[in-house]
Design a protein that fits this description.
heterodimer, A: alpha/beta, Aconitase, domain 3, 3 domains, four-stranded parallel sheet, globular, B: alpha/beta, Glucose Oxidase, domain 1, 10 strands
Chain lengths: 424, 152
């Protein structure tokens, strides 16, 4: 890799051992992928590691080294959601003990480390840092080093920024040296599609299932999706942004997709069209039967597959304000249909702290939401489900990411609405 | 019978161990998290979506796979299990290594002085040939020798 004089001197230890190791990690990482140089980052990083699990000692040690050396990324950064929220998420006394003393026993200490290394503030905990209410919103062409898979795929695909799917810690170290290795999704060539997704469904598929199908098929390759703008149109409206957010998150967790193009819709596809498709590309046809096949293939990990759900999580990745508002009417319609006054299943909706504030500011809507009995939190449902006690519960979700990493059972929006409102 | 394959040493080293094979991408978080969180002394794969690895021991094994997939905490998890002594002995990729696995083995080497010997680009034939339990010798230059002693 061609390094500048300054980069080489850091690598040789001129600015101390911690920056030397940070630079060595970033350079080795780049060389593995044949990056020819490092490129300056024009935007803040977003970290994936938001949880103080005591055994993550390598992470805490690196943070300590950075703090001791007075080293931090150049711009304030955001981080994934907190793993605990006892006020808004149902937790037994034993669960609280397990979470606070065992699972996330280092949470307070780790949050102090995050603030000391440049976290944007107490409210900077969300996986949807790119939403306007949160403000870590890159623009087209910005070079990033992000890690959270759902944020990376959204930033690349919907905003047209450029980030590789970096691992946790590497993104922090890129932020510390202020540069990212130029390879993969940072390059024009790396953003070309090697798969064409030929969508032939009779109606708009559930975003979470379509994303899952694409992810499981293309793994980490770039798909170019044809046939989706039939349903979504050619503008990224709030509805479309929400759909692409959830589809992308499912493709990133069920596979390793870091970028997708949607014909006639996403920024690069609108400009370059099918020129983005590589000559030797493969094609994956998705029709109604394929959507059904993929959904039927999800294993049910509940101890009793016929159990009544004890808890439901809606919002992994975190919901946008637009989605939260839409859920109010959906819950009310479900309750009207079932004849109930409040939800039949304890249901937690999750969104960024800033989105929660904006939602609460719409007092009438928020009051209607509260009246249904729904709960609102900024927790990371995935981190909650990692609690061995929580994983024994029958938890329902409309998130394919949560399904993939935990024992939560996936339902479509329509199905989960019926379940939580007592209609099924 | 012995077969020899040659790949690119990403984290070079000499190592010998038993193979565990995944025909699909290994989801690092889903595979390691349950045992790590439960403070087990050895990692049993907990990825319900990976029928090749689910329920099998990963600690100290030579994991043969196309690539790793899933959450971007993957590299950090690899670094952590390596630091804890719970990691695989080696990772042998049939395809070019992915960014998460690369980060994990680099972070473990640079910050914790723990080496997970890693070779990539071994090809589809390598992954077709290797089976669970086969003995694998890895040389520093990326040469892989596989002996079928799984019946012994």
């Amino acid at each position: 890799m061609q390094l500048t004089d300054e980069e080489r001197s850091i690598l040789e230890g001129a600015k101390g051992p911690t920056l030397r190791k940070a630079m060595e990690s970033v350079v080795l990482y780049g060389e593995t992928f044949k990056a020819e140089r490092l490129v300056p980052m024009e935007h803040a990083v977003h970290l994936v590691t938001s949880f103080g699990i005591p055994m993550l000692t390598p992470v805490f040690s690196i943070m300590d080294e950075l703090i001791q050396g007075g080293i931090k990324p150049g711009k304030p950064f955001t981080v994934d959601p907190r793993p605990m929220d006892f006020k808004n998420v149902p937790c037994s006394l034993i669960e609280r003990l397990v979470f606070k003393k065992i699972m996330y026993g280092k949470q307070e200490e780790y949050e102090r480390q995050l603030l000391a290394t440049g976290l944007a503030g107490e409210d900077a905990f969300t996986c949807t840092c790119y939403l306007k209410e949160v403000g870590n919103t890159p623009k087209r062409g910005d070079i990033l080093a992000w890690a959270e898979s759902s944020a990376v795929v959204y930033a690349n695909s919907v905003l047209g920024a450029r980030s590789n799917r970096n691992s946790g810690v590497i993104e922090l170290l890129c932020g510390v040296v202020g540069k990212a290795p130029h390879f993969g999704l940072l390059t024009d060539e790396g953003r070309k599609a090697s798969w064409v997704i030929d969508l032939r469904t009779s109606k708009l598929p559930e975003a979470q299932i379509l994303g899952s199908a694409i992810g499981m098929k293309v793994i980490e390759d770039v798909p170019y999706i044809k046939g989706l703008s039939r349903f979504l149109g050619n503008d990224i409206t709030d509805d479309v942004s929400d759909y692409l957010k959830d589809m992308g998150a499912a493709s990133a967790s069920n596979g390793a997709v870091g970028l997708f193009h949607v014909d006639g819709l996403t920024p690069e596809a609108r400009d370059e069209g099918e020129k983005l498709i590589l000559p030797q590309s493969q094609t994956y046809v998705i029709d109604d039967a394929e959507i059904e096949r993929v959904k039927a293939g999800y294993p049910v990990m509940w101890k009793n597959p016929n159990a009544k759900p004890a808890l439901a999580f809606i919002g992994c990745p975190h919901l946008s304000l637009h989605q939260l508002i839409a859920w109010v009417s959906r819950l009310e319609s479900g309750l009207a249909a079932s004849g109930r006054k409040s939800l039949a299943v304890s249901t937690v909706f999750t969104a960024a702290p800033q989105v929660v504030k904006a939602f609460k500011a719409q007092a009438e809507l928020y009051e209607r939401f509260v009246r249904t009995g729904a709960r609102l939190s900024s927790i990371c449902p995935l981190m909650y489900m990692n609690n061995p006690l929580a994983s024994k519960k029958a938890v329902a979700t409309n998130s394919n990411k949560l399904r993939t990493y935990t024992t939560a059972r996936y339902y479509t929006d329509e199905e989960i609405t019926a379940i939580v409102t007592g209609g099924k | 019978m012995e077969r020899i394959f040659k790949g690119r040493p990403v984290m070079p080293g000499n190592a010998s161990g038993k193979a565990v094979k995944s025909r699909q991408g290994m989801n690092t978080l889903a595979s390691f998290q349950k045992s790590v969180l439960a403070k087990k002394k050895t990692v049993i794969c907990s990825d319900q979506n990976n029928p090749d690895l689910y329920g099998k021991e990963l600690t100290g094994k030579v994991i043969c796979l196309p690539k790793t997939i899933g959450s971007t905490t993957g590299g950090m998890i690899l670094q952590t299990v390596a630091e804890m002594g719970l990691g695989p002995l080696a990772l042998l990729f049939s395809e070019p290594i992915d960014s998460l696995a690369a980060a994990g083995v680099i972070l473990a080497a640079v910050w914790n002085e723990r080496k997970v010997v890693t070779v990539d680009g071994l090809g589809e034939e390598f992954l077709s040939f290797v089976q669970d339990g086969m003995s694998i010798d890895i040389s520093e230059d990326g040469t892989i020798r596989i002996s079928d002693t799984s019946h012994l």
